[in-house]
Amino acid sequence: MERLQKVMAHAGVASRRASEKLIKEGRVKVNGSVVKEMGINVKKTDLIEVDSIPIVQEQKYYFLLNKPRGVISSADDPKGRKTVVDLLSGVEQRIYPVGRLDYDTTGVIILTNDGELTNQLTHPKYGVEKTYIAKVTGLIDKKAVSRLEKGVVIDGYKTRPAKARIMDVDAKKNTSLVELVIHEGKNHQVKKMLKSVGFPVEKLNRDKYGFLTAEGLQSGEWRELKQFEVNKLKQLVEEA
Ligand code: URA
């Protein structure tokens, strides 16, 4: 159930405030009856009419893409580079990525036309957990891990507590693999955090977005989210 004015706004009738005005003016009907009081809840199946014209509630779509390198995570690119949206061939709805991954970062990214969920998932207040695996130059040690966990200063901002774990150290190649779990999504955050402790990132993959992984998807492949996964994502932001 959702508030009538919110459903109207989502259907593109008018802003929430302008929708409230339409309701007060007696121009809105729910299942054939004029509704003038504010704040009533409606179901997806309710027939809502404005000036006796039914509004169509936009159906929401949710996808998970295993983003390859060399693809930009926006809906359009002025430079004409390939975007994550271009990879979802056959999907006709206008969808947008939830947050961003760098051009050279791989891994889990969600795309949807649900603007409200996108705003919630990307809002710092909700802080959905994101798990990254980074290949870095250098042999990372516990001291660096502890600094990453406590928070480091990047661009004059102290990062919030994170979880970090050394997965592998390769002395021959002078590289390490680190898992970093963060709740924020500042620009280039993982690369900047690791650089600030002396370990520049060579490769970065987002292994998990909340509970979602790219399991079963090759690089560049995508799938529609299952209803229970969408519900769980919504629950994550409601609980936050
Ligand atoms: N942090 C980064 O530095 N890059 C990404 O793409 C995502 C998180």
UniProtKB/TrEMBL annotation:
<dbReference type="GO" id="GO:0003723">
    <property type="term" value="F:RNA binding"/>
</dbReference>
<feature type="domain" description="RNA-binding S4">
    <location>
        <begin position="2"/>
        <end position="59"/>
    </location>
</feature>
<protein>
    <recommendedName>
        <fullName>Pseudouridine synthase</fullName>
        <ecNumber>5.4.99.-</ecNumber>
    </recommendedName>
</protein>
<dbReference type="InterPro" id="IPR018496">
    <property type="entry name" value="PsdUridine_synth_RsuA/RluB_CS"/>
</dbReference>
<dbReference type="InterPro" id="IPR042092">
    <property type="entry name" value="PsdUridine_s_RsuA/RluB/E/F_cat"/>
</dbReference>
<dbReference type="Pfam" id="PF00849">
    <property type="entry name" value="PseudoU_synth_2"/>
</dbReference>
<keyword id="KW-0413">Isomerase</keyword>
<dbReference type="GO" id="GO:0005829">
    <property type="term" value="C:cytosol"/>
</dbReference>
<dbReference type="InterPro" id="IPR000748">
    <property type="entry name" value="PsdUridine_synth_RsuA/RluB/E/F"/>
</dbReference>
<dbReference type="InterPro" id="IPR036986">
    <property type="entry name" value="S4_RNA-bd_sf"/>
</dbReference>
<dbReference type="InterPro" id="IPR002942">
    <property type="entry name" value="S4_RNA-bd"/>
</dbReference>
<keyword id="KW-0694">RNA-binding</keyword>
<dbReference type="Pfam" id="PF01479">
    <property type="entry name" value="S4"/>
</dbReference>
<dbReference type="InterPro" id="IPR006145">
    <property type="entry name" value="PsdUridine_synth_RsuA/RluA"/>
</dbReference>
<dbReference type="InterPro" id="IPR020094">
    <property type="entry name" value="TruA/RsuA/RluB/E/F_N"/>
</dbReference>
<dbReference type="InterPro" id="IPR020103">
    <property type="entry name" value="PsdUridine_synth_cat_dom_sf"/>
</dbReference>
<comment type="similarity">
    <text>Belongs to the pseudouridine synthase RsuA family.</text>
</comment>
<dbReference type="GO" id="GO:0120159">
    <property type="term" value="F:rRNA pseudouridine synthase activity"/>
</dbReference>
<dbReference type="GO" id="GO:0000455">
    <property type="term" value="P:enzyme-directed rRNA pseudouridine synthesis"/>
</dbReference>
<dbReference type="InterPro" id="IPR050343">
    <property type="entry name" value="RsuA_PseudoU_synthase"/>
</dbReference>
